[in-house]
Give the backbone structure.
Amino acid sequence: MTTATFPGVSTPPIRRNRERGGLGSAGKIVVMAVAAFLTLGPVVWTLWTSLTPLDAASGEPSLGLGAYADVFTQVDMWLLVWNSALVTGLCAAGQMITAAMAGYVFAKMEFRGKGLLFGLVLATMMVPMQVTIVPVFLLIRGMGLADTLLALIIPALPTAFGTFLMRQYFLGLPHELGEAAALDGAGPFRTFFSVFAPLAAPGLAIVGILAFNYHWNEFFRPLIMLISEQNFTLPLGLVTLQGNLGTGSVATVLAGVVLSMIPALVVFVIGNKPLREGLTAGSNK
Amino acid sequence: MSATVAPTPAVAEAPKAAPTSVPRADRRATRWLTWLFLAPTLLGLGLFTMVPILGSILLAFFRWDIITSPQFVGLANFAELATDPTVRVSFLNTFGFVIIAVTLQLAVALFLALLVQSRMPAWLRTFFRSAFFFPLILSAASVSLVMAYLFNAEFGLVNQVLAAVNLPEVGWLTTPAGAIAVVILVYVWQNFGFTFLLFVGGLASIPRDVYEASSIDGATGWKQFRAITLPLLSPTVLVASVMAIISALQIFDQPYVLTRGGPGDATRTAVMVIFESAFQQLEFGRASAIGIVLTLIIIGVTALQFRLSRRFVFYS
């Protein structure tokens, strides 16, 4: 932007959206602060309430970690965490691997039927999970995997969206890298593993973080696939805990909720940018 | 370009040297790599998405409870959908929910995305963006647990605040209107941040000089918004609304945890009826039929929106 384009005439700096008659700058910040308060308020309230359980003797809330001790006695928290970590970790790792491999082939290899196959992969993204869940449940049951964690993991290993994302990522890497590696005597497998795969790490991080965010929080599939409490994942375990405890032990349930948020929060902090990019990546194909 | 008609194939189609110079062993390895790398994705999506779609279509023509053998019933499952009051009410609930929740979500997100553009310290802008984005990383089930306590009619914080400022307490989860309001609020609370991110990205891509030019012409505030921001943002609005509608049509976690569909059928949604039909009433055929209808609605809404967009969306 240049001011004073015309000699002798100095144009005033033009500000975008200069408010006239609208909210002032301070007013806008106040409105946003209220919105941020309403957004974060329930989270802060959850944390505060979990730290101030009702005292057994007086019936008054008092600061302490009692609710956190309670949630471990009321429900096998370690098992819930372990189940969730296992499902989430294997789904994320599996999706990173399958998406990297398929995305690479769709980006860098030429073969007959490529367009058709890629179109089919994209088409599966349009199908809502609810329409396939009944046959998937029947398949899983037929495979003898009902009420196991594998029922959640195996169907979630391939990922259409991740494949699409990794294909875009590999398309952005210059083809010459592969040719250079081939001249150095590297076969196709070595070219992938030692040249392309390492360069695709940022794209893989997006796939992994999205998978983590989704599977750590998912409720619908566990609710359908799991029956025994020893196989429950965290969200399912917490909803069951609330049902069992009734309304008396708010702090206990909320302590469980806070604990279940911690890994998501860590990912939010370290993976903020890839998470934002990944979530919105589908909108600008 | 248009003047010369005679093609010059020798120059235009220079043979690519690379593939022919690759040794035969490498070519075989390349073919191996291609299909080996595709196998997990193609087999996985085939087995767990493609086959289930076909299975769902097939199942919709049968009555089956897993225990006894399936019975062909033709279109009876679909006909039942129109007559069954629970199914009908659940679809009406879903449509009403989508209309209100998506409108609210887009309005809140657009309003905040416009505000976050204004002048403020960088750290404050980062704080606001992160705050609005934060609920997206939480589990909808856990959020609904928390909100069920906050909106509890007897001891919930929301009614305590209402009482403190002398407003009447509301039977949030115990009355139909209250329960619907809570489901909408909880859903929008968790999801507006996604639409907000899309709008922030869309606004950032509007060139500044357009505003500058219109400022010189004397356009400000609302006029600028109507004449510039909205038309230039319309592709983003379209994408955001399609994504919001598709995801809202599939709402399940919030009403399941908050109300189990009640009171009565007030917050029962289409996906809740799929779940209940299949896994509580063992009506697998009916569940599949509902799923297919829902999918067709999703495809229809998407197609309609893109058709409408040709008239309203401005692509520069």
Summary: The longest helix of chain A spans residues 77-108. Confidence is low (pLDDT under 50) at residues 1-21 of chain A. Residues 169 and 215 of chain A are 23 Å apart (CA to CA).
